[in-house]
Design goal:
- The protein is mainly β and 171 residues long.
- The chain is built from no helices and 23 strands.
Length: 171
């Protein structure tokens, strides 16, 4: 499925719980190849697979606007791509929590092969595995360049990352 934002789903305000689902082969010419989250929406993900989705920003998921909350537990992000930033996920303001996720072979032509945290985003990534991520610029795995963004990394593992000047780029 293909759209301008949120290739399969757009969550605009409100909340959504998505469990044990597969988002595969979706695309967006703008933001979020599979899902776009905006305007203070709250989304809880658990046990999902995001495979081969593509977008300009946020190959699988793009979350933006203040107050947005995204929680991901035991999700798999594999072979997603962004022509700009955030191969699997781009998070721009709000709160992101990722627990026990797998990021495998995601790619960004800009920054953050797996994940890009921008603006005033607050992210906690815990107990997750990153393998094969790549980007053309900073952060083959995780990137942030905003002095207002906050990223906490707890008990994660990185393997076989390539292509950028750094695996994790935090500013």
């Amino acid at each position: 499925h293909s759209t301008s934002d949120g290739g399969a789903l757009e969550v605009n305000r409100g909340s959504a719980i998505i469990e044990d689902s597969t988002f595969s082969g979706n695309s967006s010419s703008g933001k979020g190849g599979a899902i776009t989250i905006r305007n203070g929406a709250t989304v809880t993900l658990s046990g999902n697979a995001f495979v081969s989705n593509q977008a300009n920003n946020g190959g699988a998921i793009h979350a933006q606007d203040g107050g947005t909350r995204l929680s991901s537990s035991e999700d798999r992000f594999e072979s997603n791509s962004a022509s700009s930033d955030g191969g699997a996920l781009l998070f721009d303001s709000g709160t992101l929590t990722v627990t026990s996720a797998w990021f495998v072979d995601n790619q960004a032509n800009g920054r953050g092969g797996d994940l890009d945290v921008m603006s005033t985003g607050r992210a906690t990534i815990e107990g997750s595995h990153f393998s094969g991520g790549s980007s053309s610029n900073d952060g083959s795995s995780i990137h942030t360049d905003s002095s207002n963004a906050e990223v906490r990394l707890l008990g994660n593992r990185w393997d076989a990352l390539a292509g950028a000047r750094s695996v994790v780029h935090l500013r």
